[in-house]
Amino acid sequence: MYLEFYGLKEPPFSITPDPRYVFLSERHRDALAHLLYGIGKGGSGGFVQLTGEVGTGKTTLCRLLLEQLPEHTRVALVLNPKLSPVELLETICEELKLDIATRRGSRKALVDALNAYLLDAYAQGLRVVLIVDEAQELSAEALEQVRLLTNLETPTQKLLQIILLGQPELRDVLNRPELRQLAQRITARYHLTPLDRDEAEAYVRHRIAVAGGARVPFSRLGLRALYRRSGGIPRLINVIADRALMAGFAREQASIGERLVERAADETLPGHARYWLRRHGRYAAAAALVLVLGGAAFYWRHRPVEPPLPAASATPTPAPDDVLARLRERMAHMPDAGLGAWSQLLARWQVNSSQVSVREAARCQGVIAPGVNCLHGTGTIEQLARFDRPLILVLRLGEAHADALLLDVDATRVRLDVGGQPFLLDKSDLALCWNGEFLAIWRLPPELPATLRQGDAGPGVAWIKAQLARMDGKAVEAGPAYFDAALAERVRKLQLAYGIKADGIVGPETLFALSSLDESGPHLFRNLE
What we know:
- The protein is of the alpha/beta class and 529 residues long.
- The protein has four domains: 26-192, 3-Layer(aba) Sandwich (Rossmann fold), CATH 3.40.50; 197-297, no CATH class; 323-365 and 380-433, no CATH class; 459-506, no CATH class.
- 43% of the residues lie in helices and 15% in strands.
- The chain is built from 21 helices and twelve strands.
- The protein has a seven-stranded antiparallel beta sheet with strand order 6-7-12-8-9-10-11, sandwiched between helices. It has a five-stranded parallel beta sheet with strand order 2-3-4-1-5, with helices on both faces.
- Helix 1 crosses helix 2 (58-67) and helix 3 crosses helix 5 (140-149).
- The protein is globular.
């Protein structure tokens, strides 16, 4: 309801885990480094423990971890730990795609199958990782079974790395005397704390910018109240800020101050509303009534009209549309194998034929026109969604192949344009015809070199600093444009957030990420309905 009023393209404070909105504080980066360390050389087959309060971002870190796993890693992810030891073993085997049809119910048979798999993986140079989310819900017996899995080893190396994610209660559970053997095997521990005040404000500014906002609708006092009432917990920041924006829209307040944030927190946080009502009496009731009536009136004016239900018919329901069959048919009858997608992409970037031909652009050889760059790479659809730009996906189905234009992405589906025809695919279907190969174009200052690193100076470094300052909601620093160690560290943080190799060097992928939050240029539509 408030998007147009505050100049936003989409709700900035949704609690769904959209990867574009990931904000990594210093503590989040340290926690992610601990997890990656545990999976890499440092874990040595022991346990890695990550704890944090509800809403601090443990699940988000787990998603980032899964996106950045080395290619030689195999993962078993357990999301529901309220299982018996046998059920837990069955779940682990299922996650690793083991055939356990004849082994169910037998702890020994399941462990034997798992041990054989781990030995085979070790022989192939693979690393196997077990991640248990909400691990504080594991029973003592199940935790002991998890510990016993670390006994699967060769004479020189453990075969299974285990990561336990949980709420602070997990630390208390592992401090029990009967679990001291497990506690002694934990090689890395990290407790994720809430954001501090500066990070909370940067978090709000980041989400507003990603949502297309040109300014932050919260005043300085409003931001401080948002931090104070949320305690720096990202999920609570989202809940309070979203309610405050709705209330500000209902009151037509362009700037949301401390009082409105306080009221939004009282309405959304448990245990606070009754105190506020006692303190403010009839004014609270009146304000609530105004909000309810205003919201109801708005909804009534703009409510979606449901189409009438079709009359009952004896005609049998047709079979579901086979989108992959239609896609294969379309790809097989595309004479240009996808140059139409390139024409659309160039048009959306306002690159005309006098600058570069479609066929020349499709070769994607670095700079394809003055100030227009092209990137040929690989990634996941979640990583590409973070860039928020239309892209070319290289599709292959059997002998047919074609370039398709990526238009929209949501949590489960993508919309593509293939030869001028729209296709709405589940991500599972996309995985059957796309191996991660993509091509993208974007605009950059013509004087910007292809690579920048620590020690460089000049206009290119100034542009990088300006982009990072804009993304962080800060003023551009005055002074010489020099690529120092602090800028290299900030670039690493950006790369980590976008799933790019975090080397601190600004190459084509990082340049693409830096340009992705510009208002200029095309963006994904984000409307799959």
